[in-house]
């Protein structure tokens, strides 16, 4: 929780689908941000091993998250789990 009168630290970043997920998580962990806004975050895409990238980040950093679907990755469809790229993704509040 942010104390009254203290500025809120916000990180806003296009993470290029989460292709370098470990580095993304390490950087975000080092920022000590109150609110994280991420763009181009994969969900079920082949290029990121069908991960829910926003969920992986939130689990590692002990944060809540919201996924906003931007578009479906039609060239990466596989079965009933459709792949999406989304924005914004908001993570906050441990």
Topology, element by element:
Layout: E1 10-17, H1 21-31, E2 35-43, H2 53-61, E3 64-72, E4 84-92
Parallel strand pairs: 1-2
Antiparallel strand pairs: 2-4, 3-4
Helix pairs in contact: 1-2
Provide the descriptors you would attach to this structure in a database record:
2 helices, 37% strand, 94 residues, elongated, 4 strands, 4-stranded mixed sheet, alpha+beta
Characterization of this structure:
This protein has helices spanning 21-31, 53-61; strands spanning 10-17, 35-43, 64-72, 84-92. By secondary structure, it is α+β, with helices and mostly antiparallel strands. The protein has a 4-stranded mixed beta sheet with strand order 1-2-4-3, covered by helices on one side. Helix 1 crosses helix 2 (53-61). The longest helix has 11 residues, at 21-31. It is elongated. The N and C termini lie close together (8 Å). 23% of the residues are buried.
Rg, alpha carbons? 14 Å
Task: Provide a count of the helices.
Answer: 2
Give a count of the beta strands, DSSP E runs of length 2 or more: 4
Order of helices and strands: EHEHEE
Shape: elongated
Q: Strand-residue fraction?
A: 35-45%
Let me know the largest β-sheet: 4 strands, mixed
Poorly predicted parts: none
Physical arrangement of strands within the biggest beta sheet: 1-2-4-3
**Terminal residue distance:** 8 Å
**Secondary structural class:** alpha+beta
Q: What is the percent of helical residues? A: 10-25%
The overall pLDDT average reads 82
């Amino acid at each position: 929780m942010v104390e009254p009168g203290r500025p809120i630290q916000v990180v806003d970043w296009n993470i290029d689908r989460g292709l370098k997920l470990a580095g993304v998580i390490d950087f975000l962990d080092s920022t000590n941000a109150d609110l994280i806004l991420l763009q181009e975050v994969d969900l079920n895409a082949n290029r990121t091993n069908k991960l829910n990238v926003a969920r992986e980040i939130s689990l590692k950093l002990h944060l809540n998250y919201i996924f906003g679907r931007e578009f479906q990755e039609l060239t990466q469809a596989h079965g009933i789990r459709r792949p999406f790229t989304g924005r914004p993704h908001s993570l906050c509040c441990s």
